[in-house]
Write a structure and sequence with these properties.
Layout lengths: L6 E4 L7 H11 L4 E4 L14 H13 L7 E4 L12 H21 L3 E4 L2 E2 L5 H15 L7 E5 L7 E2 L2 H10 L6 E6 H7 L6 H11 L5 E6 L1 E2 L10 E2 L8 H8 L9 E3 L4 E2 L7 E3 L2 H10 L6 H8 L2
Parallel strand pairs: 1-2, 1-12, 2-3, 3-4, 4-6, 6-8, 8-9, 9-12
Antiparallel strand pairs: 5-7, 10-11, 13-14
Helix pairs in contact: 1-2, 3-4, 4-5
Bound molecules: fe (iii) ion (2 copies) and zinc ion (ZN).
The site of one fe (iii) ion has 4 residues, from loops.
């Protein structure tokens, strides 16, 4: 069982079932890992955590071979540690992320993924410095959790190229608390050639050590390499392609790292806007069988009719 692929997806967290609800979705999709927001990603409203639901979640995880070390939280994307133009907002972001770490610790979660932040108009250096200072205030020596800085596309003033992440990692005092999260869509859009992923891994290894990779977001991209756009696509349906993604997923150097899908939900019809049906069960089936199914999207639509 040690050889098993560690794969899951983003799942929804609701106030009623909390972690238990997340586990139920993961089980339904055939996953042994998953990622969730502890509330709405676009706001910072967070409800109290129910300990009984955590216990029930743990039981269901045990039954389904989901290990706590493969459960990941994503910090809300409105938290911006790079911008201190409005001191109150910067302080709020720092306090909120600290509370988020405490929530993760309550859940027993060991990794939280964080978008480094956008410098807005402060410039790259100031932005990176703000992130470093914030992380140095947030992290505590005895925290049993790692912050995984996610590679970003660089749209707008977004920080999060590999080199920018290395600068942050070097500036943080508690270095053992910081890891990196590689997002395949974001890396493609930023300009990294995913067909040469081993070269990128060599580079990461040389700079910070490959053991610092804590999570991999596996997404196809709607866009060509280098456009800095950030629009996720379903596995095998975008510009990265099935084979390249499969090579990354099954790369032996990344074996023990959780792979998390954040691919878009499927719309009811090709022209409808509202995204209704999660694709994860079908995508994971394709990944496990290593066979691309070009009819996947139509089949999901039919199944939900
Ligand atoms: Fe993210
Ligand atoms: Fe991501
Ligand atoms: Zn994205």
């Amino acid at each position: 069982m040690n050889n098993e692929l560690i794969i899951g997806s983003h799942v929804n967290y609701n106030g009623k079932e909390q972690l238990l609800g997340c586990v139920k979705q993961a089980v339904e999709y055939g996953e042994n890992a998953f990622m969730f927001y502890t509330g709405a990603p676009q706001n910072t409203v967070r409800l109290p955590i129910n300990n009984k639901l955590i216990e029930e979640a743990y039981e269901l995880m045990k039954k389904n071979n989901i290990l706590l070390k493969n459960v990941i939280v994503h910090a809300p994307y409105i938290v911006n540690l790079a911008n201190n133009k409005v001191p109150e907002s910067y302080e709020f972001a720092i306090n909120f992320l600290r509370q988020e770490l405490d929530r993760c610790i309550k859940f027993g979660v060991k990794k939280i993924v964080l978008h480094p932040g956008s410098h807005v108009s402060l410039g790259v250096d100031v932005g990176l410095n703000n992130i470093i200072n914030a992380l140095n205030r947030i992290l505590k020596e005895d925290d049993d959790i790692k912050i995984c800085l996610e590679t970003m596309t660089g749209k707008g003033s977004e920080l999060g190229s590999l080199d920018e992440i290395f600068i942050i990692m070097n500036g943080v005092k508690l270095k053992d608390k910081i890891m990196i999260c590689l997002d395949t869509c974001h890396m493609n859009d930023r300009g990294y050639d995913l067909k040469k992923f081993d070269e990128t891994l060599d580079y990461i290894d040389k700079k910070i050590g490959i053991d610092k990779i804590g999570c991999i977001h596996v997404n196809d991209s709607y866009n060509e390499r280098g456009v800095r756009k950030d629009r996720h696509d379903n596995i095998g349906f975008g510009k990265i392609g099935f084979d390249t993604l499969l090579d990354i997923i099954y790369n032996p150097r990344l074996k023990n790292i959780p792979k998390i899908l954040e691919t878009p939900y499927i719309t009811e019809t090709p022209i409808s806007k509202e995204r209704l049906y999660p694709p994860f069960k079908e995508e994971i089936m394709m990944i496990k069988s290593r066979v691309f199914n070009p009819n996947m999207i139509t089949e999901i639509r039919d199944k939900n009719k």
